[in-house]
Every structure is written in structure tokens, then in C-alpha cells.
Amino acid sequence: MSDTFSYKARNQFGKKQSGVIKANSPEKVASILAEQNLIPIDIKGIDSLAKPGLFGFMKGKMYESLIIFTRNLSTLYKAGIPILRALSIIKIGPAEGYFNKATAKIRDLIRSGTSLSEALGEFPDIFPSIYRSAISAGELSGKLDKILDSLSFMLEKDMELNRQIKSSVRYPVMVLLAIVAAFAVLITFVIPRFVGFYSKMGTELPAPTQALIWLNDIISNYWVIILGGMVITIFILKKIYSTSSGRLFFDKMFLNIPIFGDLIIKGNIARFAHMLQILIASGIPLVKALETLSGVIKNSQLSAEIKILSESFREGREIENLASDLHFFPDMALQMIKIGTESGALESMLSEVANHYTQEVEYKSRHLTALLEPILTIVLGIFVLIVALAIFLPMWNLISAFRK
Description:
The structure is a single chain. This protein is mostly helical. Helices cover about 70% and strands about 5% of the residues. A three-stranded antiparallel beta sheet has the order 2-1-3, covered by helices on one side. Helix 2 packs antiparallel against helix 7. The longest helix has about 60 residues, at about 145-200. The termini are far apart.
């Protein structure tokens, strides 16, 4: 059963409100809403499994709001402004927007005696568990200013990587879409006209042209079945991905994709090192920090390998013996973590790991178009060859027929 629920409710004045609550059951959600003097209208479960993008660190607008919120809170707190006052000052987006309502609720909870980390826990859709864990550790250790600053830096780096990858992927995607569109126009409008013209001339059409005619007939006569099959296939794949074994299979497959797989691994390891550094700096023990991160990393294969790493530290096993169990976790990162734990300089080593893999992702994303050019050239060449054979071979046959 889902442990996250979206709700629609009315307040005592009849005004509609909506949001997301983490709870064990719809009844618990209704109870929480009742405590807030809200009358539930609709409560729906949300799939608790994360739905990451291909790279595992793609972000939406809510993430951008979280970055602004963290940076503002860090600045105000370091300036000596109390948390309650800082939360009153911070406004993000529309005045009646969801984020501002959440901030107001968090402020009310803190005023009633709740800690900041516990108050943030009321909105798991905005503040992920790793974020709340870091804040909680910062409160306990008295290093909240340092933790907020580190979180701001990590979130901004994460978003920057996301934007670079989106920018790099845009050109190849546009090329592929243009090829698909051109191919659709070819088999829908161009090839059928060839059929009518050449059938009158009594000229036999070559195999490439006949293949495209056959494809056009299939699409024209069975498009409903094809569309239905695509919808059913997508539905089945989503259902498979919603299971732990299915998700593990697909996530492992993503990591084996040429070029992109390496980008996914390095992006997630950079993010992992940043977050682990923050947790260690806030005073959380290494094993506990690794356990927390194993549930946060979006790619389930990498998450499973981090869990193995956590168990090895708990049991006191040598890291060198993990090579056979960690198929995708980079050996360099593993060795640097080992050196950091042995030398007592784990924080600085994690910073080096994070910076190294961040630079690797930045470099690869900037040169992604160049790396994909050979593949795009081959795809474009095959398309041009098919078009040339399908269009010019019939013309050649027609000229030969006239000569005879």
C-alpha cells in the first residue's frame, strides 16, 4: 500500500485546499486533516516509489523552490535572525502557493514546540528524508548554519548538473524527432503518390519502396491496434517498474547504456558524496549515514550497492573484498572513502570525490553532442539511404523501361 497520499479538503470557511501527506492509511490522513480543522473531500494514494528521470537526479520546479528556500534560510540564519522570524520573511512564488502555505504551517509547528526537522517532516513531498536528517543532525550538533550552507551548495550543484544534461540532450533529441517526422511524411504522403503513378506505368517497384508501402498500409489500416498496443505496453512496463525486482532490472539496464550509463553512475556518485559529506559533517555516524543514503539514491541498483557498503562497515569487513559485489560503484570512489576512514580525513576525501565526479559529469554533458555525433551520423545516414533507395530506384527503373 502507498505511504504517501494526496488530498483535497475544505477548511472551516469552505475554501478548498490540497496537498500531500505521508501516512500509513487514508484513515490516518483523514485524522491528520481533522486535527488541522480540514474536512477531507478526496484522498488518493501516491506510488511511494520514486519516479526518477533517466539520470536519477532530474528536478522539477518544487526542487528549485527548495533551493531558494534553503539559500534564504541559510543567509538569514547566519545573519543572526531566529528561525521563526526567518520563516516569516521567506516568500517563494505566489503568496497563496503551496510552498508558502507549507512554510506557514512549519512556522506554526515550530512555535508550538516542534523542532525544525520534525516540522519539515510534515511535508515529505518538498523536504526529502536526507534533507530532514541533515537538518536534525545540525540542530543536535549546533552546526545548523554550516549544514544549511552545505545543503544549499549541494542542491545548487545538483540543479546545475541537471540543466547541463538537459541542454546537452536537447540537440540529439531534436535530430531524432526531425528524422521521425520526416520518415512519417515520407510513408504517409510521398510513397502513396509513387504507387499511383508507377502502377499506371506498369513499372515494378523495387524492394525498398515496396517495404515502405507495406509499412504505410500497416499503419493506415491497423493504427488503432498499434496505438492500443503501445498504450498497453507502456502500462505493463510501468507496472513492472513499480515492483522492486522490476525497478532493479530496469535501473541496472539504464546503467549499462553506452555513454548515458556512465553519466548516470557519475552523477549519482557525485550526489552521494556531497550528501554523505554533509551527514558526516553534521555528526551522523558513517554506518547510519550510509543507511540513510541507500534509501535516497534514485537508482535502485546503486542504492543496493550503497547498502552493501553500509553493511560491510557495520560488520568491519575490508573494503577490498567488496569488488565482486559492487558492479557499478566506481573503484576510485571506494578507495578514496577507504583512505578517508583510515586517515580520519573522510570529509575532505568525500569533498574530493564529489568534486571529481561533478567535473566528470560537467565535462561529459558539455561534450555529449560530440560523443553522440557518430551515432547520429549513422542513424541519419541509414535514413538518407532508405529515402534515396525508395525514391530514386523507381525513377531509375522507369527510365530503363522508357529506353526499352
